[in-house]
Specification:
Helices cover about 45% and strands about 20% of the residues of chain A. By secondary structure, chain A is of the alpha/beta class. In chain A, the strands form two sheets. Chain A has a seven-stranded mixed beta sheet with strand order 6-7-5-4-8-9-10, with helices on both faces. In chain A, strands 1-3-2 form a three-stranded antiparallel beta sheet. In chain A, a hairpin with a 2-residue loop joins strand 6 and strand 7 (about 125-130). In chain A, helix 1 (about 5-25) packs across helix 2 (about 30-40), helix 1 (about 5-25) runs antiparallel to helix 4 (about 65-75) and helix 2 (about 30-40) packs across helix 3 (about 45-50). Chain B binds a DNA duplex through helix 3 and strand 2.
Chain lengths: ~210, ~210
DNA sequence: CTAACTTTGTGAACTAATTCACAAGCCCCG
DNA sequence: CGGGGCTTGTGAATTAGTTCACAAAGTTAG
């Protein structure tokens, strides 16, 4: 399989969320044009994106909503349950731990860690906060597929190094820090400062656009 | 000015955060090579990114850390304070409202809204939760530059429509929904589902990469 | 002052991503 | 059952973004 662009994967997510929405409404077929209108792209782009993975539509007719949704779930790896741990039981970590949207998509948050002794043992929702010193053992035991990092920026790289060393291959970081991981580990960073700066850049340079 | 790529703006943020880090350590000069190593890019990319905005270095020597940091702050629109409101005082909204990282960068969260009568009037940190029915008036009064949306996905578009109509030009959304805004409004979306799906896509298709 | 050494800034070359445009396939109607 | 009308799937063309490669400009040492 050819290397798939990140932008393509992002759009597949968008298509899928739209498909699930209309699937729930009982809509049976849709078209690349419909998908494009919602996703803010073009119908050619939609078809090109899908074409990397196969051929899912019927010419003259469009796509079967349930079939395409199911195919996209498979492509995106949503055909199974994923075990997630959150490291950092601060405000954001706790908010994420209780975020229902995760479970709906097959992401089961089954571990929450912190290094602050005053937090360890406390409950956050249904989870008991564990000491980060157990992280290595828990990861080795295959407890988790994905780690979510919500520790302060200055501790983030150290935690990442530890969990990478223990064999975790996918990390989502909310730390305002530039992290580095080996090539075989997938890292995504949600950096609020960066998003806000993209906004202020646009506001400041509006005249130029 | 030529249209600046989003990827360039993102990298400028990364360069700036590195510069501020070493500025605090008292480092006086740096090079495109240093900036590249940290940002996970190449020195040519760094120089190209900067070249869209002018010429900031000295050949043979590199860049003055304070000067380049200051130039980047100016370019990114961080040379001033920004007034931010958060709409949706749920878990995530409340966590963001108290997030110290915002203020450090000149983003002052001075308004927090919710439509739930049981929340209105409550305090979250130093902010009192206001009824969303005041949003239009407050925006018209010029209270805010940027709106952060943390309402449930199903209400997000309605809120966006209201604040756009009231004249707000920059929105950061955390709702798991595809939102649409007019061309002259800048919208960024942080979609957790999408980030996780990018991870599971990578995990599922690892062999192919 | 000159030569050796660095590092920037930037056209040119290259690579990646998007859009175009149209043949191919399928449905429906008469 | 054949023709008109749609919509897909996909090479080709275009546009956008990255990397190369080197002249220009500055620094340092002798």
């Amino acid at each position: 399989m050819r290397r798939i662009a990140e932008s393509t994967v992002r759009r597949l997510s968008i298509y899928l969320s739209f498909l699930e929405e209309i699937e729930a409404e009982g809509v049976l077929t849709t078209s690349s044009d419909d998908l494009a209108r919602l996703g803010g792209t073009t119908s050619a782009q939609v078809r090109k994106d899908l074409s990397f993975f196969g051929s899912f539509g019927k010419r003259g007719l469009g796509y079967s909503v349930p079939e395409l949704a199911s195919a996209l779930r498979e492509i995106l790896g949503l055909g199974r349950q994923w075990k997630v741990c959150i490291i950092g039981a601060g405000k954001i970590g706790a908010a994420l731990a209780r975020y229902a949207g995760f479970a709906e998509r097959g992401f089961n948050v089954i571990g929450l860690y912190d290094s602050d002794p005053s937090k360890i043992g406390n409950k956050s929702g249904s989870l008991t906060i564990r000491d980060t010193k157990h992280l290595e053992d828990d990861i080795h035991a295959g407890k988790y597929d994905i780690g979510v990092i919500t520790v302060p920026a200055e501790n983030a790289q150290a935690i990442v190094d530890r969990i990478v060393k223990s064999g975790l291959k996918a990390i989502l970081s909310f730390a305002d820090a530039q992290l580095s991981v080996p090539d075989d580990v997938e890292l995504r960073t949600v950096n609020m400062a960066m998003e806000l700066e993209a906004l202020t850049f646009a506001l400041t340079n509006r005249a130029a656009r």
